[in-house]
Write a structure and sequence with these properties.
This protein is mainly α. It contains ten helices and no strands. It starts with a helix and ends in a 5-residue tail after the last helix. Keywords: Cell cycle, Cell division, Coiled coil, Periplasm, Signal, TPR repeat.
Length: 277
């Protein structure tokens, strides 16, 4: 009996051994699959976090570019204002010199004629010297009376200051009101551009595109044409209009190949086409 029991035990062990190895193998396969799944999930989450960070950085870069353009525009206006001031001052000084010379000049030919009595020279009155150079110049408006040009400039400056302070919603409202009141004013083209730029900074690409395109139609001689073309290409790219963006940026490069805007257009085109800038 003991021998029979021993034989049965040996047979059972031989039969169960393959199943035990198979169970262990299945356990190992299941663990490895689970680990692979966890790694894929973690990798996917890390990728999503990285993409979100890249998107945040791109948004910050766009805002910084907008601020740089705002500051550059403000600096340009200051330089232009100073230049106008010095030109006006130089003109006034030259007119004062001409007036003083005419007042103190005698007629040499008459002094040589016999019997001609030359009246004593009259010292020019200081008040008359001051008045003569101002003749023909536009007189300033009386104190307390503001001209239409001054009101336009003040309204534009108010809207522009809101943009500089990053009060974007208020700046949009103010710029729209300015364009409605002064559609043909000397600052209308610039106001149209900064309205589109404000929308772009806020990532409202559709209204930004419409505003820039309107600038091309209604203010074709504006100094902001190249800037508007560049931002039209940018907005089209952001809206997924790749073919239109390529065409717009390509036209800008052809029109002004050596401009700063053309340089930025080339970089954006490289990005659109998937090339390393």
């Amino acid at each position: 009996m003991r021998i029979l029991s021993t034989c049965l035990t040996a047979v059972l062990l031989c039969v169960l051994s393959p199943y035990s190895d198979s169970a262990k193998s299945m356990d190992f396969d299941t663990i490895e699959e689970r680990l692979d799944h966890v790694e894929r999930v973690m990798g996917s989450q890390a990728l999503m976090d990285l993409l979100k960070r890249v998107d945040d950085l791109q948004r910050e870069i766009q805002e910084l570019r907008g601020q740089v353009e705002v500051q550059a525009h403000a600096l340009s206006r200051i330089k232009q204002s100073q230049r106008n001031y010095y030109l006006d001052l130089d003109k006034r000084l030259r007119q004062v010199g001409v007036a003083a010379t005419e007042a103190g000049t005698t007629t040499p030919a008459a002094s040589r004629l016999p019997g001609v009595r030359i009246p004593p020279a009259v010292e020019p009155d200081a008040a008359s010297v001051r008045e003569k150079p101002l003749q023909g110049l536009k007189k300033p408006a009386p104190s307390g009376v503001e001209s239409n040009s001054d009101r336009e400039q003040a309204a534009y400056q108010k809207a522009f200051d809101l943009l500089k302070k990053k009060h974007y919603a208020e700046a949009i409202t103010s710029l729209k009101a300015f364009l409605k009141r002064y559609p043909g004013g000397q600052y209308a083209g610039n106001a149209q551009y900064w309205l589109g730029e404000t929308y772009y900074i806020m990532r409202q690409f559709k209204p930004s595109l419409n505003v820039f395109q309107r600038l091309l139609r209604e203010y074709p001689t504006s100094s902001k044409i190249n800037d508007a073309l560049l931002k039209i290409g940018y907005a089209q790219d952001e809206l997924g209009q790749k073919a239109e963006a390529e065409r717009t940026l390509g036209n800008l490069i052809k029109q002004s190949p050596d401009s700063t805007q053309a340089h930025l257009a080339r970089k954006r085109l490289q990005k659109i086409l998937g090339k390393t800038p």
